[in-house]
Amino acid sequence: MRKSDFSESMRVLERRKREAGAESTADLYRAVRNRFGRYCMKERLLLQEVTAARVTGFRAALRKEGLRVNTVNSYMSSLRAMYNAACREAGGRWKENPFAGLRLKREETKKRAVPVEVVERIAGLNLRGKPELAGAVDLALFSFMACGMPFTDLVHLTRENIQDGGRLLVYRRRKTGVLIQIGINTGMRQLIERYARPDSVYLFPVLPADARHETYKAALALHNRHLKEIGRLLGLAVPLTSYVFRHTWASEAYRCHVEISVISQALGHTTEKMTRNYLARLAPEEIIKANEKVSHRVEKLVGKWRKPYL
């Protein structure tokens, strides 16, 4: 590969991300590479051909397509990251930095939380005869009761994540690697027992043991389709997705006057260095107390009479 071959460099960077397990970033890099190549109308692009005019034009073209501001920003940020990495390997930039004047200001997005009363309504739904929707509800309720656990972490939980005699659920965020320790409340335990299968490596049998990233993405898309259908059944204005329950837990915890530092640790956030240093001193008991305040109303509705739907 020629060091100035930006197209090939982008492929290499994508492959490295995938090999490192950063599948979502790899997917984003692939999308940016394909879109930027189409915009430039070149299958092979050299580093010196990445000019300020092309960068500005690419951004304008993305906006013209109707992509949201934050999506455009994500594409441009990734393109810049790949360009900088390619320049480092090539020994330096070609003349001026084409991203020098690029300013990426994030747009405030619409809040995705719903009132906790909506989660109670979802927990109380009678979905007999609709096993796919019932299974989606169970996963969503577990996510909520597990301090807003993301879908990717939830479906990769194994028996090894249950520790301290069944009292704690201990795992690392797949996105950030942050260690999370949360208490297993009654509702969570009931759902774990409901879906326990000796032939499944995971606590919830959503994915096969040898699932690839594409299989996971398909499972997430199906889960969100089921949640949207549930939202329509309830006449909700906010489209339900897996992340609604994460936002809802955080919002309800804040409403219950849980300290922001505790909420941040429960969610596994790592955006502020001072917060991370402070959170390292918190014990799991603090998060257990916080989750009890938020989840106690919902966990009472997770009755043992319900059958597993997955």
TrEMBL record:
InterPro entries: CB, DNA_brk_join_enz, Integrase-like_cat_sf, Integrase_catalytic, Integrase_recombinase_N, SAM-like_dom, Tyrosine_recombinase_XerCD
Keyword annotations: DNA integration, DNA recombination, DNA-binding
Residue ranges annotated for the Tyr recombinase domain, each copy included: 109-292
A Pfam family it matches: Phage_int_SAM_5
Claim: DNA-binding is one of the keywords in the record: yes
Similarity annotation: Belongs to the 'phage' integrase family.
Name of the protein: Site-specific integrase
Residues in Core-binding (CB) domain copies: 1-87
